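Intended use. Records like the one below are meant for learning the mapping from a protein sequence to its folded structure. Do not use them to infer anything beyond what is encoded.
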Amino acid sequence: MPVTEQVDEEAEVMKFKLQIHSRQNCAADLVLNARDLPGAKYGNVVEIFPTDVDAPHLLLQISPPKDKIAIAKDVVSMEQEIAKTFNFKVFSEVTVLLVDPEEVALDSVEVVFRDQYFARSDMWKIKACLENTCIYLNKKVEFCGGTVRCSVYEMWSKGDRVGSGIVNKDTKIVFRSSTAMVYLFIQMSSEMWEFDHFGYLYFEKAVKGFLNELFQKWKKFGANHEVTIVLFSRTFYEEAKSLEEFPEDMRHCVRQDYKGRFYEDFYRVAIQKERYDDWGPTLLSLKKIFYEYPEKVEQCHARQGVAIPHGVNSTAEQGNFLEVLNISLNVFEKHYMDRSFERCGQISYVITPGVGYFEVDRDLCNITKQRIIDNGIGSDLICLGEQPLYAVPLFRYNNKLSCVDDFSIPHWINLSFYSMPHSKTGYNTFVPRVRVPPSVKARLREGKVHLPCSYQVRIPK
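Structure written out for the chain above:
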C-alpha cells in the first residue's frame, strides 16, 4: 500500500538506479545528489518505490553524500537494512519524487522497547528527537549515545496503517514495553466449575484458551514480561450467626459484609515474578491447582477436634474483585523503591468467569479508583461469560442504610470478553437468554394464550 494517497501532481518524477550502503560506512538512510532532483534540498522528504514492480512506497529524507559513499549521476544509495525490509533490489530502477511533509504526517506511532527503564523524561526526549524526522517500520531509534534504545513497531495515518511517514508536533507517540511487570489474577468463583453454552469448562476457557493465546502472542512478539499469577476466591459462612462460632486463631481472617454474612478471602500464588520462554509447564501446574483448590480452601483451617462452620464458594459478582486490584497496587505504587532497570510498565489482568457485574463497597471502590488514577496503572478485566444485554463493567454499591440500589460504570477499567477461537459469534448475532417454558409453548400453539398485537411471536414447531 502506498504511504501517501495524495501526491502533488506538479512534482517532477525522476528515475534513479539504486545502490545500497552499510550503516558503518554511512549513517544516512538515503543518499543522493540534490541537483539530480529538480527543486530538492537536503533534508526534504521524497517518496521512493520500484518502477517496474508493485511494491510498497517508502518515505525517506535526503542526505548529502559522504566521503565513503561515491554517488554517480542519477544514482541513489539506500541503507541495506531498509532495502531488505522493504524488498528493494540493488541496481534496480526506482522512482523518486518530492512530497509535502504535511500530506504524509503520521497521526500516531507505536514505539517498542525492552530490557530497560524509561522515565517520563526519556519519553519526552525521544518525542522531541523524532519530531520533524522521517521514520519507517522497524527503524532503530537511539538516544543519549545508545543508552536509550527503541524501535518503531506500528504507524497510523488517516485511519490506515502505513510503512513510513513524518513525525510532526501533532503526532502521538505510544510507548510499549515488552519487559513489563504483569500480575495475572484468576477468580476461582463457583462458575469456574460450570460449563458455558458451547460445553467448555470456564477454567478451560481461562487456561487452555485465553492464557495459552496470550503466551503465544508474547512469544511471537518477543516479549519477556515478569509475571505473577494469583488465584483468588471468597468463601461465605452463611450458617454462622456470630464470630464466636469460629476457632480463635481463625477469627482475625473472617470479615462480615453489609448483609451480616461472615466471609473469608483466599489467595493462592501459583508463580511469582517469573520469566519463561515456554509457559506450557505453568499451564499444567495451573490445572493441577484447579483440581486441588476446593479441598485446599476447605482444609485451610481444619484442625483435629475443632469445628468450623460450613463454607460456600461465592459467585463472581460477590467475589473479592477490588481487593485483588489493591494487592497489585500495593506493589506497583512502590515501584520507585529498589527499582529494576530492566523492567518498565505495570499492568494487572483479572480473569473472571462472570460478565463484568460486581457488588462492591463504595468506600473501597473510591479508594481503588483514586489509587489507579494517581499511579497511572492499567487494569484489564477479561470476562469469560457471555456478553450481557446491559452496559458493563457495572458496579452495584452495597448500601447498608438504604434500600435503593446505586450503580456505577467504572471508566478506569478496560473490559474485554473472551470466546474460544472456534466458538466466536458476531456482535450482531442475538443469543436468547430466556427460554419460553414448554407449557407456555403448547398453550400458544393451541391458541389458549392471546397476546397483544405488539407482542405476537411465532413459536417454532
